[in-house]
Design brief:
The chain is mainly alpha-helical and about 120 residues long. The protein has helices at about 1-35, 40-80, 110, 115-120. The chain is flat. The termini are close together.
Length: about 120
């Protein structure tokens, strides 16, 4: 009974948060459109160009720079510390790696969101 109460409580909370999030997004969109509607054409053009510049920098240039940094680190490791990048010797691995493996813990069915978990209550 208590479990069912918490599930209903979290479901209500989740719905309230979704409503608040959607209302906030609509308010932001309304604010942006009303801001753009009150600009002169020249200012609107400048604002649009700066917005596109920021989006391109954030969505294209930053991932490219991060990838460039990672590649340069790996290349410098290959040159100066190649022993760190050597693959492990496969012959040293046991014949069956699952013999001594611990069992994988399973999530409670309530956390996975399956409908069967509601029937258990």
């Amino acid at each position: 009974a208590q479990r069912h109460y918490y599930i209903r409580k979290w479901s209500r909370f989740s719905k309230v948060m979704w409503v608040c999030d959607v209302a906030f997004m609509l308010a932001c969109i309304f604010f942006t459109f009303s801001f753009l509607a009150n600009l002169h054409e020249v200012d609107q053009w400048k604002w649009s160009v700066s917005f596109v510049t920021i989006v391109v920098r954030w969505a294209v240039m930053m991932p490219f720079l991060y990838a460039l940094i990672v590649v340069s680190i790996v290349c410098s490791l290959q040159v100066f510390r190649p022993e760190l990048l050597k693959p492990t010797d496969i012959t040293k691995v046991d014949s069956d790696p699952t013999e001594n493996a611990e069992p994988v813990p399973q999530w409670p069915s309530v956390l996975t969101g399956s409908r069967d978990s509601l029937k258990e209550c």
